């Protein structure tokens, strides 16, 4: 079983249990459900830097990245640094995150927030909205073409932006859907965790211009970003490179300054 299969199986069970505690119709009554969302895609289109900074305590590939810093300090630091969006891991079992992290991030910053989660059920899209997300992630490797279509449609009907993550051409081909705002190329292979920036470059030409192109994972220097821009990328998702330092906000600030 690959790690991705393990995570999806776990998620399906997790969702079934959660639905028992808080049914969807209750999620719809959460105050944040009525919040006006902010578009990450729009923010990236008009940005000259395009950094989406991620809060990530740990990961299956690297175990602990940073469990000492406080979420509100990290995300407010990111916002001050000039990030155009914040990504918050909400999975607890593999990444040490939670929906409380999402809530707290929503309270702390005013830039768009991405719920970083392995979405396998529409319930998690309602949950994202109820806990303050502006954007959701859909991972092509976890979902069928039909699910991608249904889930992206649901997200848009809730006024959430959709970032669809792909890792190869086959996944990309099933992802070019009308309700998708952004296509993210994950440079990390979720099956073996190997990172290769060439993945973004190779797939870039196959992504139509109406999608905002985002390069995800393994980005640790500004030169890489300058290079990726020539391939049409407008968004860059960075986690570990910031989170592994003592002060992720300060690290992001120095990084973004070099991009201006
Ligand atoms: O920490 P990195 O290498 O900068 O990567 C960030 C982000 O791209 C990565 O966390 C990620 C990309 N896709 C995901 C899907 C689920 C969980 C995590 C991810």
Can you put this structure into words, describing what you see?
Belongs to the TrpC family. It catalyses: 1-(2-carboxyphenylamino)-1-deoxy-D-ribulose 5-phosphate + H(+) = (1S,2R)-1-C-(indol-3-yl)glycerol 3-phosphate + CO2 + H2O. It is an enzyme of class 4 (lyase). Pathway: Amino-acid biosynthesis; L-tryptophan biosynthesis; L-tryptophan from chorismate: step 4/5. The chain has twelve helices and ten strands. It has a single domain, classed as Alpha-Beta Barrel (TIM Barrel). The radius of gyration is 17 Å and the shape is globular. It has 260 residues and is an alpha/beta fold. Indole-3-glycerol phosphate binds next to β10 and α11.
Task: Give the key terms.
single chain, 260 residues, alpha/beta, two-stranded antiparallel sheet, 12 helices, 10 strands, 41% helix, Indole-3-glycerol phosphate synthase, amino-acid biosynthesis, tryptophan biosynthesis, decarboxylase
């Amino acid at each position: 079983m690959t790690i991705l299969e393990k995570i999806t199986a776990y998620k399906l069970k997790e969702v079934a249990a959660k639905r028992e505690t808080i049914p969807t119709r209750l999620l719809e009554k959460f105050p944040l459900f009525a919040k006006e969302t902010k578009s990450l895609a729009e923010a990236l289109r008009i940005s000259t830097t395009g950094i989406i900074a991620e809060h990530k305590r740990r990961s299956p590939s690297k175990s602990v990245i940073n469990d000492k810093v406080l979420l509100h300090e990290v995300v407010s630091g990111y916002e001050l640094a000039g990030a155009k969006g914040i990504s918050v891991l909400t999975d607890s079992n593999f990444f040490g995150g939670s929906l409380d992290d999402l809530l707290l991030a929503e309270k702390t910053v005013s830039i768009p927030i991405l719920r970083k989660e392995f979405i396998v059920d529409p319930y998690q899209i309602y949950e994202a909205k109820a806990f303050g997300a502006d954007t959701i992630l859909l991972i092509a490797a976890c979902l069928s073409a039909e699910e991608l279509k249904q889930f992206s449609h649901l997200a848009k009907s809730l006024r959430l932006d959709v970032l669809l993550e792909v890792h190869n051409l086959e996944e990309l081909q099933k992802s070019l859907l009308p309700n998708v705002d952004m296509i993210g190329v994950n440079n990390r292979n979720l099956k073996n965790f190997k990172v290769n920036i060439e993945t973004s470059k190779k797939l870039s030409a196959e992504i139509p211009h109406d999608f905002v192109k985002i390069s995800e994972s393994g980005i640790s220097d500004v030169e890489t970003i300058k290079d990726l821009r020539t391939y049409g990328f407008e968004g860059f998702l960075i986690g570990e490179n910031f989170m592994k330092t003592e002060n992720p906000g300060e690290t992001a600030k120095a990084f973004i300054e070099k991009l201006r």
